[in-house]
Structure formats: C-alpha cells, structure tokens
Design a protein that fits this description.
757 residues, alpha+beta, Aldehyde Oxidoreductase, domain 4, 3 domains, seven-stranded mixed beta sheet, five-stranded mixed beta sheet, 28% helix
Length: 757
C-alpha cells in the first residue's frame, strides 16, 4: 500500500445497453474485475475469467489494430464524459503493448467501428473496458512476439519489447509495423483473455499522471464538444416542446415559421414540433414564432407539493423489496435505546453547462447521429425502432458534450435531430436544446425519503438497524427492454410507450444503491420502496440513490455517536471490520489532524463521513470544515479533506480530478440545488431558478490517494459524492448544534438549526 498525499493548494476547476433478455442484464452486473488479469503472472498463474466486454466483441481486431508504421489504434465502447477515461485506457493499452503512449490513438463509443460495451456509467469503465483492453493488448503483444520469434528463429521468451520494437539477444530487431505489413491478418483472431500480463513492478505508464488527451481542445477553445461541430451545408435545428407535461397540441400555424428568413423545414408529427434553418439565430427566432403559433390543451400532470416532498413520496404506491435482512433471528437486547430520524433529498437537475445537442445526417439510406450519449449502442437500437429503419442502417458516434453527469437530454435530442434530418434528407442538421428545454424536459434525478431506526446499547454499540428508502426509479435510459425511453417518441402521432421500471439487483441497486449499511451490524433490515407513481420524469444522475442514502446513513451515524457520547471517528471504527475501510478512515483523520477532544467555537464545525461505493467499489473518508453565520445561515466551507482507496490507481492526477469533481458537485447539491415546480409544471427554467456552486464557493480540497497496485482498480467517478455531502451535513450540525435532515441545507434551514439547538 502506498499513500500519496496530493498538493493541498486550492483546487481551481475548469470547466447498456441492457440486454433484451434478463441474462444480458445479469451479465452487465457480473463484472470480471480488472485485477483478475493483473494477477495472472507470466509464470502461469490460474487463468482469469474472460472480461465481460468480450462477450459481444470477440475479435481481437475489434480492440487493437496496428498499421505499417507501428501506430496503434485502440477501440473502446466507453465514452469520454470529462472523466479522463480515454487517457487511462490508453495508458493500460500502451503499458501491455510496450509502446510509447504517443504512438497510440483511441476511438470511443462508435457503432460503426467500435465494440459494444453498453453504457458508460457507474464508475465501471476501468473495470470493464480496462479489463478488456488489458487482456486484448497483452494478447496482441504475445501474438506479435510469437511472429517475431518465428521470423528471427529464436524462442519467444528470449525476446524483449521496447517502444514497439522487438529485440533478440543477438541484437537483431523487428518492429510491430514490419510484422503486420508482412502478415495483414496477424491480429485477426478470437480474443482469448489468457495471455500473460505485466506485473505491477514492471509498469512504466500505469500509476503515472499522464496529461489528459481530452483537455487541450477544451482549454484552447478548439472543437471539443458536439456543440462545436460543423459539417458542410449543415442546417441548425430547434424543437418546440409542450408548455408542461401532459399538454397536447390542439392546433398550430406552421406557415408563420416557414415564412421566417432562412427556414428550410418546419415539421409536425403529433405533438412533436421542430424546424431547421440555414443559420442558428434564424432557427432560434423561428422557434419563438412557432411556439407562439401553437395552442396546447390545459391538461397537466398532478405534481406534489414541492415543500412537502417526503410525505408525498411515502404516500405513493410502491413496490416494496427487502434489499437486505441479516441477523433477524437474533434477539434485540432489552436495555437498548431506540433512535429514529427521517432524511430527504429533492429532485435534482443534471444542470449541464451546455444544453443537450446532437447532429444527424440522413445520407442515402444511412442515418448517422453524433451524440454525447452515454450509450451509443443502446441509443442506436431505439433510434432505429422509432425511425422504422434497420438497425444496421443507423450509426451513433459519441462526441463529448459540455457537461454530463448521468442521463441528461443527450439521447432525447439525438432523436429530435434524427427526425428533423429525415425531413431534410441529404443535409446534416445540428439541433441544440434551449436552456428551458433542458431544465423542463431532460430526465431529473428523483427526490428521496429515507427513514432510519436503530437500537443503541448502553455500551454505545448498534444492536439493530432498520432502514427504509422511498424513491422513483433512477434508471430509465434508452435500450431498456419493453419500451422506448426517448422523449419525442412519446409525442409522435403514433407514440411509443416508455420502458417499465428497471429492477437493478444489489449491490448495484437503483434508489437503494448504498442503502445497505457497510458497517458490521448484528441485525440489519433494509426495505426499498420503489415508487410506482411518477408525475415527474426521472432517471440517472451521478451515483443514483447512493447520494441520498449515504447522506442519510452517515448523518445518522453522527447522531448515534452523539447519543452514545462518543467521538464520531471512534464510533465508526467500533463498527468497521474491513481493514481497508479502517485504513482510509485513519488516513483522512491523520491528514485533517482530527482530534476527538477538540473544542471549536460556536459557528465553526468539522464533520466526518465514510462510505464504500455500492459496498464493492472505492473506499472514501471525508472531513469537511465549515464556518456558519448565525444571523444569515450562510455556510462557508473552509476545507475538504479526503482519503481514497481506489485499488490500483491508473492515473493519479486523473483520479484526483474525478474525486474533486464529485466532491464539489456534492457540496453544490447539498447547499443550493433543487428543482422547483408548482402543482402543474416545472418552474425551474433557467440559472436564476437553479443556483449552483460558483468559483467563489469552491474550498481547498486535500486528497490522500491510497494506491494498491496489486488490487483491482475500483473507479473514481462517483464514490466521493455521498460521503462529501454527509460530511458537510455533519459539519453544519457541529457548527449550529442543530441538525438539517432535508437537503438542500439552505440558509433558512441552517438558521432554524441554530434556533432548534
């Protein structure tokens, strides 16, 4: 184990497909860990299981190709969402191939030439695609070395490779490029997953902070995002949505918009309205005219009281499932004290900086869509269904979007663009949503209500733990069986129906992700109440239900510690048995100089939280320091300290980027963010209605990375979010003497906590 203390300078931010059969769903949740391959030694250790991504992509050339110059092209089905995954995957491939990283190009999430790896989500890209690329690259290297051995007349194990050049003991060499030039089909074979891979002691690239390959264009104003794309003769599109969910289009005068300067096409299909123009400002102007020319019914969804969400959620119909039940036969001691608390989190927006955008081109009989989707292959299938085209006639090419934290409007706008491109066949159309489209119509992260009841012994130990969570589904992506999860598909003259709610098993979970406590408890019962009423369209946002569940569990752990008159850190240690959990907790405490006997002045607080993401992935311990102003209730975060165990760290700087991003987003959600609505419609339509963290709000973030090069890589994208929010809540409670159990912790709620104390 190596602990790496990153700099403590102020952080300066820049800006599955699920199978059609249940077996495919299980496959996606049964991952072959990256470490399995890393632990297969050249001396013939036990063969590891095949990477899950090989199941649909069984040819080696689907992963690795080498040209005559020795340049390597790597293919992945995972998408670059700003998490730096393409850099990490390039490092993995270059490491196993023994080539310079500059000689490797990587292509991602393209149905015309890349592997089908489902979705990019759940901090699983290194586990899934990393495992596949490591095994494929090791196999490619072994094939090339074997070919060189035959050519040079020496044993393969006598050869060495440096920078894509194979060296014989007598000084003769042969380049990778020479080998493939002489035998074009050399790498065209089935993937096997049984080639020996490098041991951590021999790594040259893994574990190094290689500069991210996706950043230069973003920093220099280059064409970094799909919003930046331009194609010859390209048109610009806009869409007009109903004023509220449930409203139907009664009548519309299309001619007014058609008469606008530059307008090429205006289309109506049922309740779907869209237009294309030669210039973007012309499309925006025509959209306003088209919107004014439309008459909609007064029908609307019956939305709950936004200020009484927990009670509303608990009153809706639900499908109740026991997510965990352990120790239920053991009796609860008679001398325990029962403690109970309710927590909640609101509906949250994706709040992507750039509104969703896609570019579509119907050229002949082929539709190509460029999209910032998280699942190119799932989206392709649903687009083909809605368009009535053979799936092989539709391609989806991933291009990054300006902001992606889950299932935003990327897939919806892809269908919008494709429908419009069909109307102007032969010319590409770029269609971008307006800000009000994004806030009102993109999928929203569900509100949640959490109730915890625990029994505390006189010795300060938890004797029983009962947890209930109420939430709508956090998973309604395209490609799920039984329907079409694309917005425009529901508004067409011949509409499609959404997919049924998805049941995701533990430990991955849906609204119940991380609802099962990671602490060593003698009795635990967890019930997931999947809400069957859904007046607001919901889907995935970073961590699914883990954000709310970890916030509630770790807040309650502090409340139990106070009831037991125990230091919060000591109380957690007493209920943890995993050595890695204890190590990450100790690392955070040491870095933050946590003292159990420390007495802070009124208005100043420190809060601690611990979590292991999905109970099987990365470990995190977070400490947050705050100053809280009694008169205004304003919270100033003065420092965040975090220790993280990601297993093998591929790129330390990239891991740090991801951790910081998760921390800052959690703090913003916890203090500021909430989707607002009245009983008829969503009223959050712009940034004035939805405040987020600004540069002035960003605190110093200190991170300790615990590198375990012999262990699996566990993913860095999501695990920091839940514990960061809980640590902040515990810090505010320490500063005020009261407890805010409902997010966001607005100044009004924080002031009330002072009063309650």
């Amino acid at each position: 184990m190596n602990a790496t203390d990153t700099s403590s300078s102020r952080f300066s931010p820049s800006r599955r497909r699920f199978g059609k059969q249940a077996g495919a769903l299980v496959a996606l949740f049964s991952l072959a860990p990256f470490a399995s391959y890393a632990q297969t030694s050249a001396q013939g250790a036990q063969k590891a299981p095949m990477p899950v991504s090989f199941r649909e992509n069984p040819r080696l050339t689907g992963w690795i190709r080498i040209d005559d110059r020795g340049h390597v092209t790597v293919f992945t089905g995972k998408a670059e969402l700003g998490q730096g995954i393409l850099t990490a995957l390039t490092q993995i491939a270059a490491e196993q191939l023994d080539v310079d990283i500059a000689s490797v190009s990587i292509l991602s999430a393209d149905t015309s030439r890349g592997p089908n790896e489902g979705y990019t989500y759940g901090s699983q890209s290194v586990e899934q695609s990393g495992a596949a690329l490591q095994a494929a690259s090791a196999q490619a290297r072994a094939v090339l070395v074997g070919a060189a051995a035959r050519q040079l007349g020496v044993a393969a194990d006598a050869l060495s490779v440096r920078a894509g050049v194979i060296h014989a003991p007598d000084g003769r060499t042969v380049r990778y490029g020479d080998l493939v030039r002489g035998e074009r089909s050399l790498l065209d074979r089935a993937v096997t997953g049984d080639a020996p891979v490098k041991q951590p002691a021999d790594y040259r690239l893994i574990g190094r902070s290689i500069p991210r390959i996706d950043l230069p264009a973003k920093f220099t104003g280059g064409a970094a995002f799909v919003q930046d794309m331009r194609l010859p003769s390209m048109l610009f599109g806009r869409v007009v949505r109903p004023p509220r969910a449930g409203a139907a289009l009664i009548d519309v005068d299309l001619e007014k918009a058609r008469a606008m300067p530059g307008v090429v096409a205006v289309i109506r299909d049922g309740d779907f309205l869209a237009l294309a123009a030669e210039r973007e400002e012309q499309a925006i102007a025509a959209r306003a005219v088209l919107a004014n020319a439309a008459r909609w019914s007064d029908a609307h969804a019956d939305l709950p009281d936004v200020d009484a969400l927990p009670a509303a959620l608990r009153s809706w119909r639900s499908e109740d499932t026991v997510a965990a039940a352990t120790g239920q036969d053991a009796p609860v001691p008679s001398d325990v004290r029962w403690i109970e608390a309710d927590y909640s989190r609101p509906y949250l927006s994706q709040a992507s900086i750039g509104p969703s955008c896609a570019l579509a081109w119907l050229k002949g009989a082929r539709m190509t869509v460029w999209s910032h989707t998280q699942g190119a292959y799932p989206l392709r299938g649903d687009l083909a269904t809605v368009l009535g085209m053979p799936v092989d006639s539709v391609d989806v090419v991933h291009v990054p979007g300006s902001g992606c934290y889950g299932h935003n409007g990327a897939d919806d706008v892809a269908l919008d663009a494709a429908l419009l491109a069909r109307a102007v066949a032969g010319r590409p159309v770029k269609l971008q949503w307006m800000r009000d489209d994004e806030f009102a119509w993109a999928p929203i992260s569900p509100a949640m209500s959490m109730r915890i009841r625990a029994a505390l012994t006189p010795q300060g130990r938890i004797a029983d733990w009962q947890y209930d969570v109420w939430s709508n589904t956090h998973a309604a992506r395209p490609g799920q069986p039984g329907g079409i999860n694309l917005l425009a598909a529901w508004h067409l003259q011949k509409p499609f129906t959404p997919s049924p709610f998805l049941r995701i098993p533990q430990p991955f979970g849906n609204g119940d992700r991380n609802a099962v406590s990671v602490y060593a408890l003698p009795r635990q019962r967890v019930v997931n109440h999947l809400l069957l009423e859904s007046p607001i369209r919901t889907s995935s946002l970073r961590t699914l239900g883990a954000f709310g569940n970890v916030f509630a569990i770790e807040s309650f752990m502090d409340e139990l510690a106070i009831a037991a008159n125990a230091d919060p850190a000591a109380f957690r240690r007493a209920h943890l048995s995993d050595p890695r959990a204890l190590a990450v907790l100790d690392a955070a405490l040491a870095k933050a100089n946590w003292r159990a006997d420390e007495k802070l002045p009124p208005g100043r607080g420190r809060g601690l939280a611990y979590s292991r993401y999905k109970s099987i992935q990365a470990y995190a311990a977070v400490i947050v320091d705050v100053d809280v102003e009694r008169e205004s209730g304003a919270v100033k975060i003065t420092r965040v300290t975090m220790a993280a165990d990601l297993g093998r760290v591929i790129n330390p700087d990239g891991a740090k980027n991801q951790i910081e991003g998760g921390v800052l987003q959690a703090l913003s959600w916890s203090l500021k963010e909430r989707v607002s609505f009245d009983r008829r419609e969503i009223t959050t339509r712009g940034w004035d209605d939805y405040p987020v963290f600004t540069f002035e709000d960003v605190p110093p973030v200190d991170i300790v990375l615990i590198d375990r090069p012999d262990m699996p890589s566990l993913g860095a994208g999501e695990f920091s979010v839940g514990p960061a929010a809980a640590a902040l809540a515990n810090a505010v409670a320490a500063a005020t003497g009261g407890r805010v159990r409902d997010l966001p912790m607005t100044p009004q709620r924080v002031k009330a906590a002072f009063v309650a104390a």
